[in-house]
Amino acid sequence: MTDIKNEKKIWTRRDVLKTGGGVAAAAATPMFFMKDAWAEEAIGNYPVKGPTVKFGFNVPQTGAYADEGSDQLRGFKLAVEHLNNGGGMLETLKPSSLKGNGVLGKKVEYVTGDTQTNPDAARTSARRMIDRDGVIMWSGGSSSATAIAQQYLAQEKGVIYMDALTHSNDTTGKDKRRYGFRYFFNAHMTGKALAPVISKAYGKDRRAFHLTADYTWGHTQFNSMRDFTEAEGWTTVQNIMTPLKSTDFSAFLTAVLNSDADVLVLNHYGKNMVNSLTQAVQFGMRELQKNGKTMEIVVPLYSRLMAQGAGIDNVEGVYGTTSWSWKQQDAGSQAFTKAFEAANGFPPSQAAHVGYCQALLYANACEMAGTFYPPAVIKALEDFKFSGTGTGDSFYRGEDHQAMRDILVVQGNSKAKSTGKYDLLNIHQTVKAADVTYPVNTFKGELGPYKPA
Amino acid sequence: MVNSIFLQFLTGMQLGAIYVMISLGLALIFGTLGVVNFAHGAMFMLAAYFGVIISESLGWGAAIFLVPAIMFAIGLAMERGLIRYFYTRPHTDQILVTFGLAIVVQELLKWQFGANNLPFATPDWGTGITRLHDYLPFLEGFVAYPKWRLIVTAVSLITVAALFALLQFTTFGLVVRAGMRDPEMLRLLGVNITQRFSIVFAIGVMIAGIAGVFGGPVTQVDPAIGMVFLVPSFLVVVIGGMGSLPGTVLASFIIGLAISFTATIPALANIIIYVIAIGILLFRPRGLMGQKGVME
């Protein structure tokens, strides 16, 4: 048997001095030396071996949001091109550590996947990118349901996911994750920016009927629009949750016709919105008189691609919000639009813009951190203030990973004023970040740890 | 109140009208040939694509006549080239081969036209609204309905009437109906039933063609739309009674009306078609107007 008493460590004066000195030296070491010390730990697909680094772009190539997905992929491809060879927003992003020679000296490669606008498919595809292809970061998507599912996967795997087109309050609210960052705006910001504009345009005594896509984004979009329009004096008559796979909205639109509502709010996106708006117009809703007023249609979250699908006659005069427009005149937007047009022959959509910026901002954070080590990159992104990407003075809020940035209130263009087939939305107002920001505790949720459990 | 019930009824009829046109072909093919054709949704979709292409290049007039004609030819080719080899094989084999064909069609369309939806504009004469209160005095105030949806409903009813007339009042129909009862006896009498049946198959596909060209502008044209309509159409046939044409028509309108009248209760609207299917099959396993012993 071992005598425990004999094994007990006897501290000598010399030991105490040595240990105390060591602890003091460690505590005094600047953080940038520490960085290399924790960088040795493998997390996710870190460390990156070889002369290249791989990004994953997981976009909807099928399903209700396929149009957005294909354009987003073009944005990502352009980002990779610029990261490797310079150009585009590399010249306008401030502050920027990007050199146009890859990221941390490694050329960027990419793999793509199809989220199918379905959370399970998105997760399976992302898992394949992480496990098989060894991506250091992935991005993409055009649905909050897929974005949230992927954020949880990111946290589990220790691989950063840069959210793309996701607008639900939950993404950086109750489902926020340390390994997910959102540059896109959200439903709350839409409500805050749009409600005053439509109440000014259509009056304070309005009765709204909502048709809402039945999943996380639709739900929060409806809540935010209801809250902000009611604060303006509007009444919410009814809301119908419509299945995401709906293609024929006639039964729901008939219910709208039968109500006493004089505004139709379409909390729909992608093909859903193209169909519901087109069909609402077919039902004569833009000529209809209700309560002595002309019926109006509002599309809270707009995109040029959707406007294109619906046709200019159907969107004329319809208000909504959007993340970004190729018509913006700032240097960053112009640099991106020119490069995109040169590569594809037509201007980019907001889906392409958000993808492009997210890839660049991630790469820039790696350069700033001097490593691909995920916790260090996350710290570099948190509270990072930047400009030159077409959204004014922006920053990733550290507490919830939501970017605070300018957003646009837009209005459908008319055939007479349009300068071409891509000139479908007019910028009605640029709403500054300071006017759409909100307290972090507006939504619950925890980010979780820097290192995956 | 009158207005709202009438409008939901009209919407229900209009939804049912599209289901009728897709399901009728399915029921016709099953009733005569005993083949469960899972590629039928894909045929509807293919017709919608042809509709877009032809209406844009040659005009709507051409699309209305050419698309059903093309689909008739495709139906003939499909029956002669593939389906006839499966008449005597089990239903599972038929389902597998036709489902496989549906996937091939879907992927070919995706490859050729992309996964995005194609805009399918209605012709000028079908665009706009019809002021129903001008024609129906019992409606109060201003009541309008999209013109194209009224046209789709009318076309569907005409198609149903034409098919029933063909089967009831022509020699061809007599032979087909006799063939459905007792094909062996007909063969013994020296009637070329095989040739008649390939025409029946082609007619079924042609009706899906009519659905595609008229229904496309309201349902959306993308490579997934065939599968979207396959399951409800199949359920319609089951509810109506496998192979029963009147049953299929009845079931289509019941489903359309049920969806329309439950639209404001989304939780119910999503499952109503299945609730009806369960309810009917529980109490009447052969379907509404199905023959005793067929798929009971």
Would you kindly provide a written description of the structure presented here, covering whatever features stand out?
The complex is a heterodimer of chains A (about 450) and B (about 300). Chain A is of the alpha/beta class. In chain A, about 40% of the residues lie in helices and about 20% in strands. Chain A has helices spanning about 5, 15-30, 30-40, 65-85, 120-130, 145-155, 185-200, 215-230, 250-260, 270-280, 305-310, 310-315, 330-345, 350-370, 375-380, 435, and strands at about 50-60, 105-115, 135-140, 160-165, 180, 205-215, 235-240, 265, 290, 295, 295-300, 320, 385, 395, 405, 405-410, 425-430. In chain A, the strands form 4 sheets. Chain A has a 7-stranded mixed β-sheet, with helices on both faces. Chain A has a 5-stranded parallel β-sheet with strand order 2-1-3-4-5. Chain A has a 3-stranded antiparallel β-sheet with strand order 13-14-15. Mean pLDDT of chain A is about 90; it is low at about 1-10 and about 25-35. In chain B, helix 1 runs antiparallel to helix 10 (about 245-260) and helix 9 (about 225-240) packs parallel to helix 12. The radius of gyration of chain B is 19 Å and the shape is globular. Classes of the chains: A alpha/beta (about 450), B mainly alpha (about 300). The interface of A and B includes residues 70, 240, 283 and 309 of A.
